[in-house]
């Protein structure tokens, strides 16, 4: 698998289990790109939903994608601290078109004090039946929700103190 180069601007494509596009982020700057991890940043980037609606992100964000973990993590820099939005998803794939992953509905929102809320369990159950998620996928996803909670508690990866701030400083070098 290819991987994006540092400084390169890429799109991010989120799909659903049925193969249909879910959401596209128009431009993210790659800060680190390897076969196992991609760290990117964006600020006020255009997002297109599957129904064609568009919106612009409101704040700078550091995006963390892993090649073997079934989740990705977005750290959003807001005036009152760093908020994280964690998507339970397939590991990423990358090709010349975009960084791609399958979004499996379950999300965890993490607040600056590191408390968190599991979101969209009802949406997950609906889509699990509708799109016929195999039992093995269901098991992997539930295991990765627990892994993600452990990362939060242990302040691992993007949840480590200064992780988002350090990568944001690097992003600012590319914006100049």
From TrEMBL:
Domain DUF402: 19-156
Domain of life: Bacteria
Residues the entry annotates as binding Mg(2+) 2: 105, 107, 120, 123
Essential cofactor(s): Mg(2+)
EC annotation from Swiss-Prot or TrEMBL: 3.6.1.15, 3.6.1.6
Signal peptide: none
NCBIfam families in alphabetical order: PRK13662.1
HAMAP family xrefs: Ntdp
Summary of the function given for this chain in its UniProt record: Has nucleoside phosphatase activity towards nucleoside triphosphates and nucleoside diphosphates.
Protein name listed in UniProt: Nucleoside triphosphate/diphosphate phosphatase
Organism in which the protein naturally occurs: Ectobacillus antri
